Predict the structure.
Amino acid sequence: MPDPQPLRILIVDDEPGIREMCVAIGRGLGLACVEAESAEEALPQAENDPPELVLADLRMGEMTGLELLAEFKKRSPRTEVSLMSAYGSIECAVEAMRLGAYDFIVKPFRVEKVRLILERMAERARLSREAQPTDGGALSGTDWTKAAPNLSTDLEELERLTVQRVFQQVDGDKEQAQRLLGISRATLYRKIKRYGIQTRQSGEKVPVRVVRGERERMILLSQI
């Protein structure tokens, strides 16, 4: 049965094709989709009717996705925000998580990947909606922090997850991973060795090593 009041998602990207794709995914999940081509356009739209979900590009216009994320978390702490970028680095991903992002999506992305992330974001937003006080008032940022699990984040663990996610998306290709992570070849090889990442050998695709309990740890980290 569809929600009596669909969750509202704001999709922010300066590429019309990306917005169109994300809108199609969102509508397929029963979300009410609103678009903006820049952070500067998105913030005024959100003032009168704050979205419960935001999917935004990292680089667009003068205001970055990280700055937009920080603004949303300041104005509306319960809004779930995920960032996406073709130029993401480890530092950007870690900073996004530190600022409260639900996830960091590396472009080009698979439709199923985005659909899964939006499904999880929507589920959290529905739980947040149900947790609204009965008098109709909104929980403040402080109240919401107390209501949510108090999980600690280890930056090294976030870095490991970021490197692993990138290698999963490029099927273990070192050259693509280096470009997407924005690090030197020497640094890449140190991180491969440090985190036990399995890479592609001699042009052959290999299955990416999956750590037992990894899915659960990724979900916990995304909830911080």
